[in-house]
Amino acid sequence: MRKPTLEEVAIEAGVSKMTASRALRGVADVSSETRDKVLAAATRMNYVGNRLALSLSSQRTNLVAVVVPSMSNIVFPEVLAGISAGLDGSGMQAVFGISDYDVAKEREIIRDMLSWQPCAIIVTGLDQPEETADLLRHANIPVIQLMDLDGTPIDFNVGLSHGAAGEGMAEALIAAGRRRFGYVGSALARDLRAGKRKAGFERVLHAHGLGFAEQQIDDAFSSIALGKQLTTTMLAAVPDLDCIYYSNDDMASGGLFACMELGVAVPKKILIAGFNGLDLVGSLPAPIATSRSPRRAIGEVAAQLVRQAVMSNRDAMPKTIVFTPTIAGIDGYGAAGSAS
Amino acid sequence: MRKPTLEEVAIEAGVSKMTASRALRGVADVSSETRDKVLAAATRMNYVGNRLALSLSSQRTNLVAVVVPSMSNIVFPEVLAGISAGLDGSGMQAVFGISDYDVAKEREIIRDMLSWQPCAIIVTGLDQPEETADLLRHANIPVIQLMDLDGTPIDFNVGLSHGAAGEGMAEALIAAGRRRFGYVGSALARDLRAGKRKAGFERVLHAHGLGFAEQQIDDAFSSIALGKQLTTTMLAAVPDLDCIYYSNDDMASGGLFACMELGVAVPKKILIAGFNGLDLVGSLPAPIATSRSPRRAIGEVAAQLVRQAVMSNRDAMPKTIVFTPTIAGIDGYGAAGSAS
DNA sequence: ATGAAAGCGCTAACAT
DNA sequence: ATGTTAGCGCTTTCAT
């Protein structure tokens, strides 16, 4: 039993296809009597409209394509939740793809999604290779690049500077009296934003005549377990550090757990610093420093931009929305910084 | 500048629409010379096919609709990652929607997604209201219900019994000598699976002449912070518990942090038990009990079912895939249980 | 190996 | 207030 079409509903209701279409869409100029007949027929037949036909015919879709690199920590799911919430009530629908931090896969996903004629596309980061950027530019739809500001946007850009985040954290830690630093990271070859934070952090260290006394970097993706493991290794090799900077909060939380197991006082002996401002960090048994990135807000703002961009003149819109992370977890650095 | 159509590519290549279509799709019976001409023209013009037209014309799509209740902890993102990975290479594309544990919103999302004529739909849980189930049944596509087994599936079912998971955990804890139980949970009105675990747990308690000495339940959604807060409250009221069962691992982790702050020995004085088997739990500074649910595997298996169902005869396929959670974190309960 | 005609299910534009 | 015509961009079917 095939699914009923608009035409079949129209026949059942004793009207033309066009009238049925108007009634179903709630367009004006349909007598309430006719509308009721059509709605009744549609309900009776379990009619569900065909958006393929609708979109093909009307030359526009309600699809917003979104590409994120990963779903294995809570960061991108929160961005997606923000986008989804920000789109609520607009009639638009997000379509997600996961690139696994793989540029070739990202390009294929983008190509695939563009074939669905989305009304906008949201991608992560500014570092797409030229071929991918080309694809995006030729789509002739609003392109929103999320999370990162350190680079040249194609169109719209919502995020924060990871270089500056690294710099800010280093300055805060030096101001807090720390001098002997270690770095624990993972997957830096793929997670370019983590690399930018590290580079910013090192710029400030060098400006103060300092540097990382020790680094532990693994190719695997970040996790609490990996942070714990690398920290244990690091402290066995260089026990006299007074601060460790991590690629993110997952790694940093693992670092805290390693210190607790080794009986190293946090933050008294070693200060632990991560990035993201995960909820987890606020509940941990010892304070660790972090840069709070407004992940959900970034998603919501991206959704707002999409709504504006598809409605109104794109040229009259701000091209860049800058968020500034707040540093938390260092004495005397309560709630500095703000979003703008 | 509008996007080029197949017809324009065909003209540019000096062939008919049909030949261009065949060349682009790699269908047989196209001379390699012609194929090259068409491919060159398509590349030159940055041609991207229009899937709306393709799907409308061919009467089939590569879309798999997926509805999950939440993105605010790592559980469903992992399921989605499993689905996405399981679909890789099939040419199918997942489309996600988030219902926020709201049945009305879920129904609207499902209705919306069905209008895109997906080739299959994956939803969370077995407890959709009749109206939603009707929608699903009338779609005439494979319906896969995830995570839960305690109920009547519409079509295919992949998951675990949460009632049994609660029972198993209670038995393990009683076997481990615990007798004075507390319960800490959240959002039970919406998270029905958490409620089923609690009910199973209580069935076993009652069978042993026991019950919860104290309960702390909040309407908010689960989080580490909430688990910590409710546990602090609970231990202030009833300090002599020897075990607390939580609605999930996020809440349980918060409970552990509360105990650490209060100087309560875990697991010596109080044993803490959650559900999910999050990575986090394996790195925590004290052992807590959990039921490991194979979230990613559930997603991957669902994707496999979809691939089979759209290719072959649905009737010849298994209707239910049962996973059994493993209990971890209780002495003597190493790696009991297995997936089947 | 290639092309022409018809049509997927809907809406836009133009009648009436 | 309702109906008619044309067409969205592609594939299917049937020729050649």
From TrEMBL, chains A, B:
HTH lacI-type domain span: 4-58
SMART domains in alphabetical order: HTH_LACI (SM00354)
InterPro entries (alphabetical): HTH_LacI, Lambda_DNA-bd_dom_sf, Peripla_BP/Lac1_sug-bd_dom, Peripla_BP_I
Keyword set includes Transcription regulation: yes
Pfam families xref list: LacI, Peripla_BP_1
Transferase keyword on record: no
MF terms (GO), sorted A to Z: DNA-binding transcription factor activity; transcription cis-regulatory region binding
Keyword list, A-Z: DNA-binding, Transcription, Transcription regulation
The protein's name: LacI family transcriptional regulator, gluconate utilization system Gnt-I transcriptional repressor
Organism of this sequence: Rhizobium hainanense
